[in-house]
Design a protein that fits this description.
- With about 190 residues, this protein is α/β, with parallel strands linked by helices.
- The chain has a single domain, classed as SPOUT methyltransferase, trefoil knot domain (Alpha/beta knot), CATH 3.40.1280.10.
- The protein has seven helices and eight strands; from the N terminus they run βαβαβαβαββαβαβα.
């Protein structure tokens, strides 16, 4: 059993650094399953993601975001490569972050597809901190049962989906995260 770490609040300095350095990150909204958190962290570290932001007020987590022993076990060391921060409002974070980073929400009914990612980044109205530098991106993932609420999707610059056969409504959130993070890594 590991001692549960204290997760620091996201600071303006964190967001400015991620913007300046063109960092890639993930915002998890109501992802309450610690195995999914660990699997997402593992994919994130594998694809050179720098940060994960958790909402401490998510009802799926109860009153506090937790990095459990199970999350660490599933992550297989990946959490050591990631900066983990917490926020109290997903919409407030996205309202600010969308001015600095490309914010991409996910929804199984989105018009745009994961294959549109490169044109979204190329045509982004978000400007790099330094000319010629890479733009930062935040991927926003929601709960498998309910997805992202409308107010969260409204704060994202883009909403994308992973097309499938339709036999099943959606992928497991950690599987979807891995596909999106691979596509972002390939940009």
């Amino acid at each position: 059993m590991i001692e549960e770490p204290v997760i620091e609040n996201l600071s303006l300095e964190d967001l400015e650094l991620w913007t300046e350095e063109g960092k890639i990150g993930v915002l998890l909204h109501s992802i309450g399953n610690d195995h999914n958190l660990g699997a997402i962290a593992r994919a994130a570290a594998f694809f050179n993601v720098s940060f994960i932001v958790l909402n401490e007020k998510d009802s799926a987590f109860g009153s506090e975001v937790r990095l459990t022993t199970s999350a660490y076990r599933v992550a297989e060391g990946a959490l050591e490569y990631l900066t983990i921060r917490k926020i109290t409002s997903t919409t407030a974070f996205l309202k600010d972050a969308s001015k600095r980073l490309i914010t991409i929400g996910t929804d199984t009914r989105a018009r745009m597809r994961i294959s549109d990612l490169s044109s979204i980044v190329k045509d982004s109205k978000v400007k790099a901190h330094k000319p010629g530098s890479r733009l930062g991106i935040t991927l926003v993932l929601g709960n498998e049962e309910t997805g992202l609420p409308k107010e969260v999707k409204d704060q994202c610059l883009h909403i994308l989906r992973i097309p499938g056969t339709g036999n099943i409504d959606s992928l497991n959130v950690s599987q979807a995260a891995a596909l999106f993070l691979h596509a972002i890594y390939e940009l």
